[in-house]
Design a protein that fits this description.
Blueprint lengths: L14 H5 L2 E2 L2 H11 L1 H14 L3 H24 L6 H19 L1 H10 L3 E2 L2 H29 L13
Parallel strand pairs: 1-2
Helix pairs in contact: 2-3, 2-5, 2-7, 3-4, 3-5, 3-7, 4-7
C-alpha cells in the first residue's frame, strides 16, 4: 500500500472492464464486411483466432482472405456489367457469414453463454471497416493498373466525357 497521502485513482474508472476478454461477435464481423469489404471481415476473424490463441488459424485466415480478395477484385474487373451491383455488394458478407458460422460459432457461443467476455467496441469495428475499405480500394486500383499494363484492352474503356 502506498504511504503517501495522495489518491492516484481516477474517478469513474473501472479497471476490471479493461481486464475482461473482448472478442468480435458474428454480427460485428458481418457489419464490418458489409461496410468495409472482404478485408475487414478477414481482419476481425483473424483477430478472434489470435485472441483465442489459434495463431495458425489466424495466419490461414489472412492467407485465404487476401487470396479471396484478389480473386474477387479480378472477377469484378473482368465480369461484364450484366451482373448487378447488389450481387457484388452481397457476396463478401455472405461468404464471411458462412465462414464465421463454420469456424467461430462454437467458440463465440461459449464466450457468450459463459459470460466470460464481452464484444469489442462498435467504434473499433467501424474503424476497421474504414481501414478495410481503404485497403480493398487500393488493392482494386492496383490490380486494375497491373491488368491494364500487362493486358492492354482487356478491361473495358470508360467514357468519362459528360453527355
Amino acid at each position: 500500500m502506498r504511504s503517501d497521502k495522495y489518491d492516484y485513482t481516477v474517478e469513474g474508472a473501472v479497471p476490471e472492464k479493461d481486464l475482461v476478454p473482448r472478442y468480435y461477435s458474428s454480427a460485428q464481423i458481418f457489419i464490418a464486411t458489409l461496410l468495409g469489404g472482404l478485408i475487414s471481415g478477414v481482419l476481425l476473424m483473424a483477430k478472434n483466432f489470435k485472441f483465442w490463441g489459434e495463431y495458425d488459424k489466424a495466419r490461414t485466415t489472412w492467407f485465404y482472405g487476401l487470396m479471396g480478395a484478389v480473386v474477387f477484385c479480378i472477377a469484378a474487373l473482368l465480369v461484364p456489367d450484366a451482373v448487378p451491383d447488389a450481387v457484388w455488394a452481397a457476396v463478401p458478407p455472405a461468404v464471411i457469414g458462412v465462414l464465421v458460422d463454420k469456424y467461430q460459432k462454437k467458440t463465440l457461443t461459449e464466450f457468450v453463454n459463459s459470460k466470460t467476455g464481452m464484444p469489442q467496441s462498435n467504434w473499433k469495428v467501424a474503424g476497421y471497416s474504414v481501414l478495410g475499405l481503404i485497403a480493398i480500394l487500393v488493392l482494386f486500383l492496383f490490380i486494375a493498373v497491373v491488368l491494364d499494363s500487362f493486358y492492354p484492352g482487356l478491361l473495358p474503356d470508360v467514357d468519362t466525357s459528360a453527355k
